[in-house]
Specification:
The chain has 7 helices and 6 strands, in the order αααββαβαββαβα. It is of the alpha/beta class and 191 residues long. The protein folds into 2 domains: 59 residues, Orthogonal Bundle (Arc Repressor Mutant, subunit A), CATH 1.10.10.10; 103 residues, Cobalt-precorrin-4 Transmethylase, domain 1 (3-Layer(aba) Sandwich). The strands form 2 sheets. The chain has a 4-stranded parallel sheet with strand order 4-3-5-6. Helix 1 crosses helix 3. The radius of gyration is 24 Å and the shape is elongated. The chain starts with 7 loop residues before the first helix and ends with a helix. The mean pLDDT is 85.
Length: 191
């Protein structure tokens, strides 16, 4: 018989139990986003497989205790998520650098990062680590901060910051790259 692989929902239940061992099944179902019946089923399955231990506190209350096996599974899955996140960040950074390098090879030296979230942070880090002479960039939060006329390539880091309507305003950038779309395409086309 093969090694049992816990499901995503089971992992999320383990995670909630590790945070608070006096949760009711109703609280587990609400926090994990599953039905009460599913919470009951998963808690029983995890107890049967040795990931959690169920203790009776009184007639109506139960305590769910993470066992060493459950703790080890939580730690291993967290480590795998961590590695997956690091790889995702590296892949995203490479993709941003590849897109900017293509623009650079076409003669573009000025870039504007448009956005304020984590993706904008990652784009900025990617440009800082890109070894290109005369490459200049700045970061703005809103398209109004870009200026007029824009002779730079705008790197859009948020989906809702599209540049529609700029032509009518006479402020069309030299070029606009929707980084969100490029990254989404990158992950939807990878095996």
């Amino acid at each position: 018989m093969g090694v049992y692989q816990i499901t995503e929902k089971e992992y999320r239940v383990i995670d909630e139990v590790s945070r608070n061992n006096r949760l009711t099944q109703r609280e587990v179902s609400r926090k994990v986003g599953i039905s009460l019946g599913m919470a009951n089923l998963i808690l029983k399955r995890l107890a049967r497989r040795g990931y959690i231990k169920v203790k009776g506190l009184n007639r109506r209350g139960l305590e769910y205790v993470l066992t060493p096996k459950g703790f080890a599974e939580k730690t291993e899955k967290s480590y795998r998520y961590f590695l997956m996140t690091i790889n995702l960040l590296k892949k995203t950074k490479r993709k941003v650098q590849e897109l900017v390098s293509e623009e650079y090879s076409r003669g573009q030296r000025k870039f504007i990062i448009l956005g304020k979230g984590e993706l904008a942070d990652l784009i900025e880090i990617s440009l800082r680590h890109l070894d290109k002479r005369n490459l200049k960039f700045k970061r703005v939060v809103e398209k109004e901060g870009i200026g007029n006329p824009c002779k730079a390539t705008v790197l859009v880091a948020e989906e809702d910051l599209g540049l529609e309507g700029w032509e009518a305003e006479g402020r069309k950038p030299a070029r606009c790259l929707n980084i969100v779309a490029h990254i989404t395409d990158m992950f939807s086309s990878s095996p």
